[in-house]
Amino acid sequence: MSEKSTIRPHIGKNIIEAKRRDDDGGAIQEPLLLGIDLGTSRSSVVSLDGKRKTIESYVGYPKDAVAKKLLKADVIYGKHALENRLAVELYRPLEKGVIKGTFDGEGATVDAEGRNVEAAKDLVGHLVEMMEPGRDELIYAVIGVPSLASSKNKQAMIDAAKASCDAVMLVSEPFTVAYGMERMSDILVIDIGAGTSDLCRMHGTVPTEEDEVTIPIAGDAVDAKLLELIKAAFPKASVTQNMCKSFKEQYGYVSDTKDKIEVLLPVDGKPTPHDITLIMREACSILIDPIVHGIHKLVSTFNPEYQERLRNNILLSGGGGLMRGLNKRIEVEMEKIVGSGKVTIVEEPLYAGAVGALQLAQDMPADYWQQLR
Fold first, then answer.
1. Is the confidence at residue 281, as pLDDT, over 90?
2. Region 49-58 average pLDDT
3. DSSP conformational letter for 86
4. Is 18 helix (H, G, I), strand (E, B) or coil?
């Protein structure tokens, strides 16, 4: 395992000074600093006082008065929203790591009415509220975004933060992982989320576009592939992509050996055991080739004197980092086209990005922040 990410117990000397005084004109108050990893599938937030939360990136709005009475809320979030999806208008507002309707690539979702933008705004607000800020307390947040997010993507993310944050800074997700672990030189970070797999090489400075690769094949693509394979192998079974996501999170693996994976799938309404051991490995393995080719691109274009050091300092983070055997399988495939290397899983894949974002919030000078109010 890699060195453990830690939260520094102080506010960095470069943080913007908060000029808001209390109601009696008292002392200047420090802002509440947050690190946020706003993900397609899950979102994490950490604060300087040690609070940390992770929720599924779902937002639900009651469909009618009956649903509102049942749920006792105007909006619900996370697993609670997913479990009550029949009673709510359910939104998963992030797609490929950015807000739906702001992604210009192939297969992008159109959001003509801006409902996903509103849901993203509510989701950010909920993450902030989970950190229990004081009344009128200034909120400064660093938010992780995919490596190659466009200016349109970033502006939409900033707009979503306006309602709940006073200042914000957007940073590449793999960069936040490296920064949080204080491993900033000659290292390559792979951050596998639901929408994208992001790769970033570090060499002691803020990375440029040439240092980053974003791959639109990640957890969601694995879920879709698993659904396709199960339907082909067991045409009489009833299965959904959300069920496949649960199977992957519990059993996902890419190693050569694995105990039998048996799941219950309805057949004509009756729960029936199905062996998906080999199907699971095949679905999860679609991550390997794109990631290895991304590694090849970043290593081969690096200074040749430091390429060996880069190959042997690869960090694996994000939800995908929890997949059994993934780091070893990447090493095996790397050797074929890049040469031998070492891939290490960070200790807290789900929080590594948010913790690094918080450390950035402590250290960055004033001109790196965008004031929202």
1. yes
2. 92
3. T
4. coil
- 266 in Cβ contact with 238 (< 8 Å): yes
Give residue 247's pLDDT: 96
Q: What is the DSSP letter of 21?
A: B
Using an 8 Å Cβ cutoff, are 264 and 273 in contact?
yes
DSSP run (H or E) holding 110: none
- In this predicted structure, the answer to whether residue 18 has a pLDDT above a threshold of 90 is no
Question: Could you tell me if 281 and 323 are in contact, meaning their C-beta atoms sit under 8 angstroms apart?
Answer: no
* Residue found under tokens 């997700």: 173
Mean pLDDT in residue range 142-162: 84
Residue 365 pLDDT: 77
Tokens of 354: 């948010």
Q: Which amino acid is at 354?
A: A
Nearest to 147 by CA among 106, 97, 187, 103: 97
Is residue 5's pLDDT more than 50?
A: no
**What are the distances in angstroms from CA 370 to CA 137, 151, 326, 365?**
17, 14, 38, 11
Q: Of 193, 154, 158, 160, which Cα lies nearest the Cα of 174? A: 193
Report the distance separating Cα 178 and Cα 317, nearest Å. Answer: 10
Q: Using an 8 Å Cβ cutoff, are 59 and 122 in contact?
A: yes
- What's the rounded mean pLDDT across residues 255-280? 93
Length of the chain: 373
Buried b (16+ CB within 10 A) or exposed e, 274-297: bebeebbbebbbbbbebbbbbbbe
Rounded to an integer, the average pLDDT of 127-153 is 87
CA–CA separation, 94 and 117 (whole Å): 9
Q: Is 223 exposed, middle or buried (0-12, 13-18, 19+ CB in 10 A)?
A: buried
| Residue 138 reports pLDDT greater than 80 | yes
Give the integer Cα–Cα distance in Å for 119 and 103.
16
Cβ density class 100-118: b for 16+ within 10 Å, e for less: bbbbeeeeeeebeeebbbb
Which residue is listed with tokens 């830690």? 6
200, 176 contact by CB (below 8 A): no
